[in-house]
Amino acid sequence: MALSTQERNANTPSPSKRAKISKKLLRVFGRTNGNYRLIGEGDRVLVGLSGGKDSLSLVHLIANMQRHAPFSFDFLACTVSYGMPGEEYTALEEHCREFGIPHVVYETGIYDLAEDTIRENSSYCSYFSRMRRGALYTFAEKEGFGKIALGHHFDDAVESFFMNMFYNGVMRSMPPIYKADRGFHVIRPLIEARESQLRAFADENGFATLGDEACPAMRKAVKAPYARERTKAWLAQMEAQDLELFKRIKASFKHIQDETFLDPGRWKRDDI
Q1: Full residue range of the structural domain in which residue 79 is found
Q2: Rounded to an integer, what distance in angstroms lies between the CA atom of residue 207 and that of residue 56?
Q3: How far apart are CA 70 and CA 65, in angstroms?
């Protein structure tokens, strides 16, 4: 159930603890926000919080930014409940109270809805991911948030790039910011951070994180998605042989030469 800003502030005590964040991760986060102008003065940001290492890192970094940035903004961590039997977020709610993070659990009926709406032979993981994103959008729209922050990191962006190329025949990745059809902006403040940095953050702070066991797809008798795991394993093998691999991939993402591809619409020619 949605709460008003006043109710959320009343239910969010002053933090009794602060997370330890490495200077390197703080630099990456701050540089990304500055370069792409993700969060600024007066923004109202809804942060998707699943309880995994990525979203936990994100919400703590945003909370740290709110304390130290030379501008003011509001944020709310939102956990989408699928409505499945035994779903439990008490520990996550207590974590947010302990660290003074404003948080709400948004109740939905996605789990039951899946029985009637998912297409045959579709990926349950992709389905639940889309439905969870849609629920976040609905909550943001209803509560008047101008931005939604997601916890995707650079490894996600690279994996998506190669998955789209190998499996879908398109060159596409994850932008740091884009405007959704509903009018608000979706931002990815961790898009230049490595997954290993976020794992180290969670480990150093001793955070208990939610993993695949929180995904409804794990309760379905379906095959696990193989494309991302296969791509992740391939990239890990490549990086083990070349430690500079991701550094060069990041550079290539920022130096795209459109006219070198087989898309005439992107060529700089005056004869066609």
Answers
A1: 5-224
A2: 9
A3: 9
As to burial, measured by CB atoms within 10 angstroms (0-12 exposed, 13-18 middle, 19+ buried), residue 164 is: middle
Q: What is the pLDDT of residues 112-125, one digit of tens each?
A: 777 666 655 555 67
Q: For residue 53, is it within any domain?
A: yes
Residue 6 neighbours by CB distance under 10 Å: 8
Pick 53 or 210 by higher pLDDT.
Answer: 53
Domain count, the chain: 1
CB atoms within 10 A of CB 52: 18
256: in domain? no
**CA 46 to CA 140: how far, in whole Å?**
7
Q: Is 7 helix (H, G, I), strand (E, B) or coil?
A: helix
Question: What separation, in Å, do the N-terminal and C-terminal C-alpha atoms of the chain show?
Answer: 56
Two tokens at 166?
């190998």
Q: What is the spatial distance between Cα 221 and Cα 214, in angstroms, rounded to a whole number?
A: 15
Model confidence band, residue 225 (pLDDT cutoffs 50, 70, 90): low
User: Distance between CA 79 and CA 113 in Å, rounded?
Assistant: 18
What's the pLDDT at 5?
Answer: 43
Annotate 26-37 with b (16+ C-beta within 10 A) or e (fewer).
eebbbebbeebe
**Triad 109, 89, 150: Cα angle to 5°:** 75
Tokens of 57: 């890192």
